[in-house]
Description:
single chain; 436 residues; five-stranded parallel beta sheet; globular; alpha/beta; 30 strands
Amino acid sequence: MRVIVIGGGPAGMGAAVSAKEQGVEEVVLLERRSYLGGVLPQCIHNGFGTQLYEKDYTGGEYAFLWEKKTKDAGIEVLTNTTVLSIEKGWKVKCVSAAGGARALPADAVIIATGCRERTLPQMRIPGSRPSGIFTAGAAQLMMNLKNYLPGRSTVILGSGDIGLIMARRMTLEGIKVKLILGQEATGLARNIVQCVEDFDIPMRYGWTVVSTHGYERLKGVSIAPFTEAGKPDLKRKEYIPCDTLLVAAGLIPELEVCGQLVPGEEAGLFVCGNAHVVHDLVDHVTQEAMAVGRQAARYLGRGDSSIRELDCVNKELTGRKGNMICTVCPKGCVMQVEQSPFSVTGNQCGKGEVFAKQEIESPKRVLTTVVKTDCADMPLLSVRTDRPVDKDDLFVIIKAVKRIWVKGPIAPGQVIAENIAGTGANLIATWVLGKM
């Protein structure tokens, strides 16, 4: 029996490993990039694995963990392989530089192709289309892997997690984030605190971009609030000068390889991860993918016939009735903290009280960033501090990091710089550089 998994991100790796563990003889994982992990290697921020492993991994570290699980499970991995279509039967038509065009037979197929980002035309925002307009993922790729800065001043359209995370990333790199726009507070509580409030970045809820301006380079955007009918109120339109517009306004599941086939309605065709529904946490992606891997195995008569239901904790941030948000885990407990005498209410566990005391006395953050390398194919390597540092030291560390150059081979967890900027924290690698 053979299962083919399309997509080598966290969902694809989770589904493949799970199917193999359930006794499927042959599992083949197809990935169009040259590496596994999907978008995780460009996600240099932390917050991955907090629920599954109770650890605070970066995207690269989480990808490296699951790449090892995939290899240890004996799964056949075909990278640089683009899937063109799926035919009933089942046959997966794909093309690669190594194998050319071919049709791979399968007994079951799992779609784990993830999402793509919405663009300005899809949002029907008029105006010119000069350089300087990027999706958040494209800007993340530029800054975290390719060593390019998208601009010097930006407006971010979208108040979800990726928009907030990029606001912090751009601020640390010296880019002025003039405004974040969104209809509501859709990001995780920890990102609202650590990416926006830590850096006093202004946000406007209920506002959107209504037009863009400029020819060769973006010069500014016009913004307006939504009316009660859900349409922009052009009478209250404002102009914001900027040379960059970051669009972080939603994701669309990428299911074109299915053609007219509908996963879930066709026996033997499954879908998981963000290709199924957009998740807030990679932990939830992995949980769902592993459940789907078990379902595929059961369809083929393998593994345990009892499928454990998912236990995913969805974020809840409908209002702030306290004066502090705990960022230890994604739950984001809204707490009422009194300083004299010290007391904390609203926390769901003891970690909230410890966090509140530290936030009052000496707030600390883990810094995630990049260092330059001598590798032309990989000019940047993602790194982080191995422990939280004083919030006031973040820009001091960034200044020291900009003077660092590294040579491979380097493995995740390897120390890049000891006692960085005299903070007592070491700077460690969170991704692979060169062949190990």
